[in-house]
Amino acid sequence: MRILQLNLERGWRGGERQVLLTLRELRRAGHETALLARRGGELAQRALAEGHTVHECSGAAGLCAALLRHGRAYDILHAQTANTLSWLALLKGWLRRPVVFTRRTAFTKGGGMARTIWKWRRADALVAISQAAAAQPRSLGLAVSIIPSAVEATPANPAHCSEFAARLDLRGRRVLATAAALTREKDPCTLVRAVHELGKSRDDFVFVHLGAEGDAAEPARQLVAELGLQDRYLLAGFEPAVEDLYALMDVFVLSSRAEALGTSVLDAFLRRVPVAATNAGGLKESLADGRGLDCEVGDHMALAHAMARLLDDEALRQSVIEKAYAYVVREHGPAHMAERYIELYRGLAAPRSRP
After folding, report:
1. pTM greater than 0.70 (yes/no)
2. What sequence ranges are listed for the domain Glycosyltransferase subfamily 4-like N-terminal (predicted)?
């Protein structure tokens, strides 16, 4: 099969990493793949560096032109973001190719819902990365397949870990950390309050917040200053190759208010770091059956207690780590994800002669 993946995001986050993993695995399985991505963007550059075919474009006009030029050359058109689905839905009558959309969010939208439903109905197959992400379209009577995101094991770079640890002076302290943008949906202020609460009973740890700027950055900084946590809660910003840094962590923490799945939690599972997180959306699914400790959204006291338990209870730590590792290897391997997509594609790609 010939499959075109579409993602026009500017940055590099979990969704973009999933696109690149999908391209790799589809190619390994013998399929001809290509990517339609933003010109000069991180995803386009990484895909080109790996030898994938990339159609680069800039903005909506460029996307439409690229689809009109290349779309009919493929058996499947796979929108990996909501905005690319919009254009596939509009051009579907001309393209005459099956459209797949992967939903990576669990947000309940307000305004513009009629347009969203119209787009979803134009897709030939809707995919969600978790039951939480599937809930809203299913509530509208739409069929949704569940294909969870994948994570892959990559060797840590010891030099990166050492340099980062020295830069933040982490030596001799236990390290709790998160990898999350400073956005409202990630709720960093609850995390700051949890760290403050934990610090009332112990001083053997430091908390490292890895993540890009966002709409909650300033409130988080203000709260850190107000609570006097400048030496305890370290806002480290975006860090390339963040996967390396799990080797430094004693506990991984996520305080999200909304989360379709949370691939950073899966990264922690794979790297044998115990997880404490809220039960938002797909996080509840990931942490089920003793794979981590979950707390109610916004409950900083519960989050502080969960962090303390994972620091102090060695038997609990090991139980959580082993259950989480076995689960992520079984359910979230890249090859397994690709197999599920290939099965879906084959059901849609009826033999046809291309015009």
Report:
1. yes
2. 13-152
